[in-house]
């Protein structure tokens, strides 16, 4: 397994550690969190006030109907004049309750907007940006080892799950604790023994919550892994749609996706069963409290030990609010597990070490001369097997170097070490006599132009795609680079020329056109070192000759590495490196290697035979 493979078994964060980091994340937004909590406390206070006034109203009515009962008790010793009628007092109480309700509605709107601002405008964008920024710093080993679906899920849905901790766990838990304490104090102030009797089942709720958390955590982790697999299946079927349709595999791909989707569905069903069984259990315990209230509280009212309105009615409201908060424990426990699972997956990316970066004492390099030297370089994508072993050679500035070898010989791996897409496991790569690891990474890569085997185009204009590596280039320089890459003519034939917008991944271009734009993009940098990873693979013979003739001038004065198979490319090189199973088996010029026995001459002879057969087939098929 690659060192950069995210493996939950190797990054098993303890819940305490995750909570500590999530609290630190929340502390960055302490002002907004305190505002949200403050608004909720005001709402709580006004709710209690409304409940208290409702109780007073009941006592007023009760006293009016049964005069020998105790008159209502007003808060803070404030009460309406004795001359007021019961109707006037009820009107006053109703007006106060209604006013509090209206104010609560306004404050609740403010509360909801504050939560949305905190979560959707601050936490989610900032955290998503941090994860994306970290992804940009990680080396190719990380992306080789981790599926794109898993990475996308971590940037999107897992970040959303992390924010649940702030607004759905932290804020709600604080509000719940404060509410429970306030409700408990109020209930005890009304009747101490009644409070103890009604809350006797509370310890059972704590036991149930602990048991739920222990069962829920592995279930939520497994759920995220299954979703990763489903997204991977979807991404592969979309990216490989031509292969799927070309081989008539629609039915099989549909079945594969449905299978992965059904696994997510079935696993979610098990989570729903777990959550659904926990919620009713909590609700049942809260209804036991209501039963105790009706029995014991009714007894106290009957014996005139407890008032009807400000006593049992208010107590009933407080107990119901208390029970509602306790019932929220099931939802809170669910959110805790979701947020911890998301946090674990997000922190796995944020904690992945950056293997390739500029060292603290990195050396600046404005303009490279273009000399490249490999000294006893060994490299493998995994630690178990080398794809390059003890490779050594030196290239002088301005030389054109062809890299030749069979598939899997290590050609692309060798070229990837020059711009430090990977670092060697052994040995060093020198640029202008300086170890590449000691150069500033940005300076190194600005001096290297690269054309990959598969040229990726962005959904932007043609001019923007060419200027991707140098967005400050003017139109004259962009057109010059396009002409050198023999792309200018077909660009002018596009509907808006250089301002034509390309489809996703350049889907409205042919392979050869995409390749020429990629070459123009590399040449626009005017690099000292040019890397062409089989640039003529997707180009027909006529276009190949046109590009190679145009690039003869472009390659003058800069060091060029070309992965090549065709003789037309190999003849243009000053130096040829022949790889076999990761080892350099031959070096020299094209003519020198052809005149000596070895792998290079064998490969050349095979190509001559193939070309001759093709020529004979064309001649024999002529009228």
Polypeptide structure, described:
With about 625 residues, this protein is α/β, with parallel strands linked by helices. It has helices spanning about 15-25, 30-65, 85-135, 140-145, 150-155, 155-190, 190-200, 200-240, 240-245, 250-300, 310-350, 410-415, 440-445, 460-465, 475-485, 490, 510-525, 540-555, 565-570, 590-595, 600-620; strands at about 370-380, 390-395, 400-405, 425-430, 435, 450, 530-535, 560-565, 575-580, 585-590. The strands form 2 sheets. A 6-stranded mixed sheet has the order 6-7-8-3-9-10, sandwiched between helices. It has a 4-stranded antiparallel sheet with strand order 2-1-4-5, covered by helices on one side. Helix 3 (about 85-135) runs antiparallel to helix 6 and helix 6 packs antiparallel against helix 7. It is elongated. The protein starts with 14 loop residues before the first helix and ends with a helix. About 35% of the residues are buried.
